[in-house]
Amino acid sequence: MADEARIGGGSGTTAFPRPLVLAVVVAVIVSTLLTALAPVYAPGLLRLEHAMADVRTALLSDQLPSQHPHVAVVGITDHTLSGSKTILPIDRLLLARLVDALDGAGVKAIGIDVLFYRTVAADDEQALLEAIRRARARIVLAAADDRVGLSQAQIERQAAFLAQAGRPAGYVNLATERDWVVRFKARPHPGSAFPRSFAELLAEAAGAPPREPRRRIAWLREPRDGSDTFLTVPAEALLSTAETPAVKALREALRDKVVILGGLLPDIDLHLTPLTTRTHERTPGAVIHSHMVAELIDGRSVSQLEVGSVVMQLGLAALACFGFLIGWRYRLKRQGILLGSLATVVILAIDTFVFWQSRIILPVVLALAAWFAGEFSGHYLGRWLGHGRSQPMWFGR
To answer: HEC string of 138-179?
Structure first.
């Protein structure tokens, strides 16, 4: 009786008879802290958020029955460059031969994922320019924008090459996070000479309609038949002069496809992605661009609730408010612990279901933080301000 009198005010009165009002106040505070201050002062929460999203992406992203039917990669490997004087810059005559070979194979579009900003013109550059200009296939060139940190001489050299080529060029920057994982598409740099991305231009060259860009990349998991996500052809195989059935089959397989021509070289342009964070296997930049192009051609997308958006603020506030009322209601009962565990399972299940069905990434870590902040606040404030055990109440009188 002494304990109940201390908690509940003795006569069953309460110091705060309207917990719903208090719940709303706590919810607003929690939502504001999580959306405005947590990204600045608790970046670990966002890192955990990314890690949880990576797990969903790796397990639940779209999966095709076999290789993507419209996108392929022609990779320049160490073996391809075995007869070249240097690895970088990539031999221009080799690139010219590859452009001619791809055009001869009847590809729909070629994306050349190679940068051309060397201040000294490479040997045989004119041969490459002529191959690019005479190709019947649509060609999109890669460009480095202001974020790469080129010198003025390099900027002018790149601009001169692209002008001579006479083909559209898009920026190939990848948005690498602090943990070195590529999850998002790089946004256009304000005032840049290249307002559109390499992937966007290449997809449109293949006939895909313009679409509102989404920040997240819509990755494809390994196909169900165990093949590569995209047909990947070593460049040297395409240049073979032998008219063997295998070479003919390769050329036929490339017909009417969008082909990204780029380097598949060790320790050059390799990145972690959500699909490989568990294995720490690094993915070539050309393959990452292939995922972006395939997303646009297929009409797929992945969206997310942005930190600071009104929808996120209201959602976190609602969770914190409901958690507060649960904590207040069960502050003197053991069911509170069980309900907290059940809430965790429910939030995770909803998050997984929404991504699986709608391809929307919810802020599951912030949602859990909002729930538990609300529940703990309701529990302890309820023990301090609420009714005793004999008069459990939701809203007071």
So the answer is: EEEEEECCHHHCCCHHHHHHHHHHHHHHCCCEEECCEEECCC
Distance of CA 294 to the CA centre of its chain: 14
- Torsions phi, psi for 232 (to 5 deg): -120, 120
pTM beyond 0.70, yes or no: yes
pLDDT higher than threshold 70 for residue 9: no
Token readout for 386 is 């609420």
356, two tokens: 């699986």
- Structure token pair of residue 279: 């294995």
Predicted local distance difference test score (pLDDT) of residue 397 = 42
And the tokens for 261?
Answer: 């021509």
Q: Is the pLDDT of residue 2 over 50?
A: no
Structure tokens at 299: 């009409």
d(CA 51, CA 217): 15
Give the C-alpha separation, 375 to 28, whole Å. 14
Q: Tokens 């039917």 sit at which residue?
A: 69
Between vectors from CA 355 to CA 343 and to CA 322, what angle results, nearest 5°? 25
Task: Please state the rounded mean pLDDT for residues 282-306.
Answer: 95
Residue 271, SS3? strand
CB atoms within 10 A of CB 32: 14
pLDDT band at 41 (very low <50, low <70, confident <90, very high): confident
* Cα separation values, 156 from 100, 166, 174, Å: 27, 16, 22
| Residue 270 to residue 51: CA distance in whole angstroms | 20
For CA atoms 249, 255, 257, 263, give the dihedral sign.
Answer: positive
pLDDT category, 336, cuts 50, 70, 90? low
